[in-house]
Amino acid sequence: MLLERDGYPAGVPCWVDTGHPDPEAAVAFYGGLFGWEFEDRMPPDSPGRYFVAQLRGRDVAAVGSQPEQAPPTPGWNTYVWVDSADETAAKVKDAGGSVLAEPFDVLEAGRMGVFADPSGATFCVWQAGQHKGAQLVNEPGTWNFSELNTRDPEGAKAFYGDVFGWEAEDVDFGEGGFTFWRLPGYGDHLAQRDPGIRDRQAADAAPEGFEDAVAWLRPMTSDQDPDDVPPHWSITFAVDDADAVADRAAKLGGKVIVPPFDAPFVRMAVISDPQGAVFTASKYVPEG
Question: Is residue 260 very low, low, confident or very high in pLDDT (cuts 50, 70, 90)?
Answer without folding.
Answer: very high
